[in-house]
Amino acid sequence: MSSLRALALLAALPIAPSTARAEPEEPTMGVTYVFATVDAYTVSPVAFDVTGTLAGENVPRTFRFWTSSYFSDRSDSVEASRCDRLGLLVMTRPGRFLLTLRREDYSTGVTCTLSRQ
Known about the structure:
Elements: H1 3-12, E1 32-43, E2 47-54, E3 61-66, H2 77-92, E4 97-102, E5 111-116
Antiparallel strand pairs: 1-2, 1-4, 2-3, 4-5
Protein name: Secreted protein
Keywords: Signal
Signal peptide: 1-22
């Protein structure tokens, strides 16, 4: 391997996305996240993680959305499972739907919306 080729390979390494094994990002309250594609979706009793590409971006990112509100003593896993169904639809039909997730503040749960592209 020529030294020029090896240098080019080394220069390209930091550009590669390192989303695998990275901690999920915490979404900002009041900001709407629109996923054009969903690559993975994980539901737990208190949160769900969504890995996908946001509209207008080209690199997948992972976000953790907490389902339970700060003022609630109930489990919001039902809400997470409803969002799960929408995420599954976006996964199985890439490019046809947008999954929109938003949480206003700590006193409310996550709002999930499915729309056609």
